[in-house]
Amino acid sequence: MAIRTNTNPRQMDLQPEMRNMLMRNGLQAHIALDGSGYRLIVQGHDSPLLVYPISERQMLALTDWGTNTANKKAYNVLTSIVGKDFYMPKNFVHARNANGRVAMGLHGYRIGIGEYGRMGRMGMPPPFLGWTPRNQWGFHLRRVGGQLFFPGPSIVPERPDGRMKPGELQSGGYGFYYKGHQQAQPVQQRDVLQDLQAVITPMVSRPRSGEPARPYKELIASPVYFSNEKWAECLASHGLVVDADRRTLTVQSESVQADMVYDLTEEEVRTLVAAPIEEQPVEKRLELLNGIIGADFSDKMTMEALNSDQRIAIGLHPEVQQDLEQRQRQEQEAFMPVETSLQQQEESVQGYVGAAVDGRDLQFLNENKGWYREEKHGREVEVSQIAVQPAQTEGKYRMTAVIDGQAISHEITQRDYDKFLAVDDYHRMKLFSKIFSEVDMKTRPEAQRGLGTKIFAALTAGTVVAAGVAHGIHHHCQAPEFYGERFGGPPRPYFKPGVDTPRDVAIRCFEAEMNREINDMRMGR
To answer: How far is CA 278 from the centre of its chain?
Structure first.
């Protein structure tokens, strides 16, 4: 049809292509005219008949079709009208490709041969790069009764790792679905501030320095020598750490066990540690500092405190101190059962011990070894206490170890018991690895990487030595041997791998010469 306006008569309804696209997405739509104006009549596959009043401008946009701009505009106008009642396709491209013949991810993602454990067909070679079968397999996912239908094993709704290949559309991003079937949840009116409480989060993330503080008057003898680096160093030595990257202020008071961390704005960070001294003198910086910490600390920072070699010892307000102590008691009560159970396990291992060794010392005895699960790719575990002791039954012995915080015991023979008492710590650990099937002493992965290089170097050195010995046996001449480099052979052209090969260069030179001769003949040269 003609794409110019008012050139050909047209039916005052959605164009057939538009209706076909909507039908493939589960929606029927038509335009009707009554005495009060234009109406858009819509019915989805799971919705009742819906009628929307539209303007003449919207009617003209909906009935236009034929160019990419007009097609997309008609679709966008329709979705803007019915959007409040339907879940819609992701965009025009997803809607246009619904039920298409090309599997581009919209109806499920292909799992190629060799991907995610999929095996190829028996007796058929795997496809190589750039080749596609003439007849594409029709494996597509389809919705049947609101559920995904799997017609073949090579299509999945989502890949296991959630990956999408370049050029693929979002799986399932098509179709109109009615929202009216969902029951609207009544909104319960409640006061959002009724459960608001003052919470103090102590953070002990920065280690406290045991060295004396550096006085301000020693670092900066005169305002002429003032610098923000020396000012920040003075604050940090006294227990006021300003992190410009994270925009935080950490107060480490000697009278408070926990660190108090405050969030700063960009302007506050600039005022404290970045602005020049002429713009922000020391008095203004201390005033801003006291304003930030004043809500929690009863004392203030002064120049006298910064000029001393003692770290700050400012105290908290009584109510803040009480809340902090209550929070610390709650944390202790929460971690007390865990510490008690671990202590009991350690005591059970150490009770009636004939000999013991700490498995965590393996890294000091042999840094290339570690404790791992028995499987081929077993994960690393922690072995703390290894001990042997006589069992309650006469003539029997047992070995007990704490593996990942769990005490495990095995019966051993008297020979193993006597051997454990006689050998050193490293061989005790090897004996433990032999008896316990739960863990194994293995070489760390990073230590295995250089093993092949070492073996190759040893073989190369042995080959050189053997060749020298054989040469000396067959050649008894004591004349000196001369070694020199030989340069010969045809020249080899240099080319960058992956960019241009000599074959590509030759092809381009041949084509350029052929084109030059053709142009010369055309020009009559």
So the answer is: 45
How many other CB atoms are there within 10 angstroms of residue 324's CB atom?
18
Q: Which residues contact 27 (CB under 8 A, 6 or more apart)?
A: 42, 43, 44, 45, 86, 176
Q: How far apart are CA 246 and CA 266, in angstroms?
A: 10
Q: Are residue 264 and residue 367 in the same domain, yes or no? A: no
398 part of a folded domain: yes
Query: What is the C-alpha to C-alpha distance for residues 111 and 118, in angstroms, rounded to an integer?
Result: 7
**Distance (Å, rounded) from C-alpha 238 to C-alpha 279?**
24
Backbone dihedral angles phi then psi of residue 465, each to the nearest 5 degrees = -65, -45
Residues 413-449: pLDDT tens digits?
888 888 888 888 888 888 888 888 888 888 877 666 5
What is the predicted pLDDT for the residue at 185? 47
Instruction: Tell me how far apart the alpha carbons of residues 419 and 412 are, in angstroms, rounded to a whole number.
Output: 11
Interatomic CA distance for residues 154 and 116, integer angstroms? 11
Does one domain contain both 161 and 253?
no
Count Cα neighbours of 332 within 13 Å in the Cβ-side half-sphere: 6
Q: Could you read off the pLDDT of 244-268 as tens digits, one per residue?
A: 888 888 888 888 877 888 888 888 8
> What length does the chain have?
525
| DSSP for residue 177 | E
User: Mean pLDDT throughout 78-103?
Assistant: 87
Beta strand ranges found along 142-205 (DSSP E): 142-144, 147-149, 155-156, 177-178
- Chain-centroid distance, C-alpha 191: 37
Distance of CA 220 to the CA centre of its chain: 45
Q: Using CA atoms, how far apart are residues 165 and 190, in angstroms rounded to an integer?
A: 46
pLDDT number for residue 127: 60
- Percent of the chain surpassing pLDDT 70: 69
> Strands 355-358, 369-373: parallel, antiparallel or unpaired by DSSP?
unpaired
Tokens 């007796």 locate to: 123
The 3-state DSSP class for residue 519 equals: helix
Say if 132 falls within a structural domain.
no
**Is the pLDDT at 277 greater than 90, yes or no?**
no
**Domain with 158 in it:** 1-112+139-179
Residues 39 and 102 in one domain: yes
Assess whether 310 and 360 both reside in one domain. Answer: no
Query: What pLDDT, on the 0 to 100 scale, is given for residue 184?
Result: 46
Q: Which of 309, 304, 301 is nearest to 272 (CA)?
A: 301
